[in-house]
Design brief:
- The structure is a homodimer.
- Chain A folds into two domains: about 5-180, Rossmann fold; about 180-365, Dehydroquinate synthase-like, alpha domain.
- In chain A, about 45% of the residues lie in helices and about 20% in strands.
- Chain A has 13 helices and eleven strands.
- In chain A, the strands form three sheets. Chain A has a seven-stranded mixed beta sheet, with helices on both faces. In chain A, strands 7-8 form a two-stranded antiparallel sheet. The first copy, chain A, has a two-stranded antiparallel sheet with strand order 10-11.
- Chain A starts with 5 loop residues before the first strand and ends with a helix.
- The interface between A and B is large, with 42 and 42 residues.
Chain lengths: ~375, ~375
C-alpha cells in the first residue's frame, strides 16, 4: 500500500512554509518544486558522516538537476560538536566557495545538523535561505519545525542562536528505517509530549498504536509525525518568538536540560532526558494539585514502554536547582516550569523550591 | 542657545523605534523613558576602554535608577576586535551573570561596539532587547540605525551577523566633542553619502555649512545627524532586509570594502575607505554615462575638503576585482555597484570589468 505525502503548513505573520511528510521524499524531485532561487544559485548540503553515507548521493543527484552547483560540507557527528567550531567550519566553506546571499543551505541530518546549519543560514551574510531535511524522528517532530536554531555554549545548551524559519521541511519517513532503537525512543519522547500539553486524544492514539510505532510501521509513523507537526505548527503560528504559549513545547525540558547539563552533554540523548523530565514535570503538576496521580502513572507507563528512563541521575537537588536557574525560561532567577493544568492543557509557572526538591527526591536514583 | 532633542522614527512593518538626537542625552533620565523591561530586569552596558573612560559613569548612574542591576562589559577597542572572541566575551559574561531573556544590552560606543553588542543581543538566547548609544558621528548617522549587526570573519568583513533592530537609538551630540578629527572626517563621509543617493539639496546644505560642521557646531551637527537618520530611516523602512532599495546605502562601499580588506582592516578607517570609494563610484557612474563630470568633481572636492582620501591604495586592478567579488551585494560572481543615476538618485547594477579597471587605474596612487 502506498502512503501519500502529507503536507502541514506553518502559518506565520510574514510568510508560511510547508512540512512535507512521507516515504521516499528526499530522492524525489517534486519535494523541491518551487523552492526559491533555483537555476542560478548554489545549493550547499550540510550533513554528518553517518547520515551522508546513507543519503548524500540520493539528495545531491536530485539537487544537481535544479541548482547551478551543488556543494557538500560535513560536520563532525554529535551534540559535542554543536558549537562555534562547527558553525565556523560552515562559514569558512561558504566564504571560500564565494557563496552569495542566494545560496540555499540544505540541512540533512538530525537535530544537531539542523540547529547548526540553521544558525549558519540565519547569520551568514545576515541570513540566507535554508531547507530542513530531518533524518531522525526527533528532528521530524520537533527540532526541524518552528525555526529555533542554535549552538551550545560551554556554559549552557542552545544559548546562542536565532529564530529563523526554513523555506520548507522535508521529512522523509524512509530515513527512520536506519535509525537506532535508542534514537527512535528519544524521538517518541517528543511525540508523547504533544498529548499532555495539547491533545489528550493523541495520547490515547499513541498508546493504542504503540507497537506499530515501535516496529516502524510507515502508516503509524506518518500519522504520528503529521499530528506532532500540526500541533507544533499551531503553537508556533501563535507565538513564533516564544513570548508566551510556545514555552509549553518545553514540557519536561526544564528538568531534562538539567539532566543533560549535569551528566555532561551526549551521555543521555536529549529525548531520554525529556522523557524522564516529563515524568518529573507531571509529578510536579500533581503535587501542585493540577492533575491526579492516575494521569502521572499513565504517562510514566507510556514513557517506560518507549524504553525511556523514568529516573534521573542523582545529582542532588541543589545541583538540579542551580542548573535549572540558567534555563532560558527562567526570569529574574526564578525557575519557570511547564506544568499540566489538565490532560491536554499546559501552562508555564514557577513552583516552590521545596515541592521541586520533593519531585527530585522521588525521581532520582 | 539650547538645542532641543530631535526625534526620528524608523517605521517597520512589525514595530517602529525612535532615534533621539541632541546634546546631553546619555546623562538624562528622560532619554530612557518607557523602554521595555525596566524595574525587574538587568541592564548590561557594553563599551570599550576609551569611551567607557569618558561616559561610562554618567550612563551607569542614570540606568541604576531604572534597572534592578546594572552591569558593565568592556571589549577591546578597534575593528581588529570585531570578531568571535569579542562576541564570546559578551556571551560568557551574560551567562556567568545569569542574565535572562529580559536583560537589556546598551551598546555605548562607535560602530564596532554597536555591531558586536547588537549581534550578541540578536543571538543571546535567540534574541534579547538592546539600545544603541552611538558615540561617533559615523555610528550616529549610519551604523547604529537600521538594525544591521555583524562581526568580521577572517575571510570577509561583516560576513556573520543579523538584521536585528534596537529598541531605541540615543545619539548624544556631546560625545562628538571628544572625537578625534580623523573620526569626525570618517563620519562626514557617510553624511555626504546621503546627498548623491537620496537628497541633492542636502549635499548643497553640507557644502554651505561645512565649516560649522568641521568646527563641531552643535546646531549644524544636530541637523546633519537628523537629516542623515531621516534618509536612512526612510530607506530602511521600505526594505529592512536589503532585498532591493536598501543597497543604495552602500554607495562607495563596494570599492571601499576592497580598500579596507586589501590594506588589512584598521589601516584606513571605514569612513575613509568609503570617502575614496564614493569618488570611484561617482567616476564609474560618469563613465557609464549617468552623471556628468562636473558632479563627480563637485563630490570629489567636498570629500577632499573633509580631509578624506580621494586616491585608493595601489593594490592592482586584479586584486580590487577579486576583493569586490566577495562583497555581499555580488550575485553569482557578478559584482554589483551602487551608481548615481542622477544627482540625488542611485541604483544598483553590474558594470563591465574594463570600465571598472579604468576607474581603478584613474584613482589609485
Amino acid at each position: 500500500m502506498s502512503i501519500p505525502t502529507d503536507r502541514v503548513t506553518v502559518a506565520l505573520s510574514d510568510r508560511g512554509y510547508d512540512i512535507l511528510i512521507g516515504p521516499g521524499l528526499l530522492g524525489q524531485g517534486s519535494s523541491f518544486d518551487s523552492l526559491q532561487g533555483q537555476g542560478d544559485s548554489s545549493a550547499v548540503v550540510v550533513s554528518n558522516p553517518l547520515v551522508a553515507g546513507l543519503y548524500k548521493h540520493r539528495l545531491l543527484e536530485v539537487l544537481a538537476t535544479r541548482y547551478r552547483q551543488v556543494l557538500f560540507v560535513e560536520l563532525p557527528d554529535g551534540e559535542a560538536f554543536k558549537n562555534w567550531s562547527s558553525l565556523d567550519l560552515i562559514f569558512e566553506f561558504l566564504l571560500k566557495a564565494h557563496c552569495d546571499r542566494k545560496t540555499v543551505i540544505f540541512a540533512l541530518g538530525g537535530g544537531v545538523v539542523g540547529d547548526v546549519a540553521g544558525f549558519a543560514a540565519a547569520s551568514y551574510m545576515r541570513g540566507i535561505p535554508f531547507v530542513q531535511i530531518p533524518t531522525t524522528l526527533l528532528a521530524q517532530v520537533d527540532s526541524s519545525v518552528g525555526g529555533k536554531t542554535a549552538i551550545n555554549h560551554p556554559l549552557g545548551k542552545n544559548m546562542i542562536g536565532a529564530f529563523y524559519q526554513p523555506l520548507r521541511v522535508i521529512a522523509d519517513l524512509d530515513t527512520l528505517d536506519t535509525l537506532p532503537d535508542r534514537e527512535l525512543a528519544a524521538g517518541l519522547a517528543e511525540v508523547i509530549k504533544y498529548g499532555p500539553i495539547a491533545d489528550n486524544a493523541f495520547l490515547g492514539w499513541i498508546e493504542t498504536n504503540f507497537d506499530a510505532l515501535w516496529s516502524r510501521d510507515k502508516k503509524a509513523l506518518a500519522y504520528a509525525v503529521k499530528r506532532s507537526c500540526e500541533i507544533k505548527a499551531w503553537v508556533v503560528g501563535q507565538d513564533e518568538r516564544e513570548s508566551g504559549l510556545r514555552a509549553i513545547l518545553n514540557f519536561g525540558h526544564t528538568f531534562g536540560h538539567a539532566i543533560e547539563a549535569g551528566m555532561g552533554y551526549g551521555i543521555w540523548l536529549h529525548g531520554e532526558a525529556v522523557g524522564c523530565g516529563m515524568v518529573m514535570a507531571a509529578d510536579l503538576s500533581n503535587r501542585l494539585g493540577l492533575i491526579d496521580e492516575a494521569y502521572v502513572d499513565r504517562l510514566t507507563r507510556l514513557i517506560e514502554r518507549a524504553k525511556l528512563p523514568i529516573h534521573g541521575p542523582a545529582l542532588g537537588a541543589d545541583r538540579y536547582l542551580e542548573l535549572m536557574r540558567i534555563d532560558k525560561k527562567s526570569e529574574g532567577g526564578e525557575i519557570r516550569f511547564v506544568v499540566i493544568d489538565s490532560p491536554g492543557r499546559a501552562s508555564v509557572r514557577p513552583a516552590p523550591d521545596d515541592v521541586v526538591r520533593d519531585v527530585i527526591a522521588a525521581h532520582t536514583a
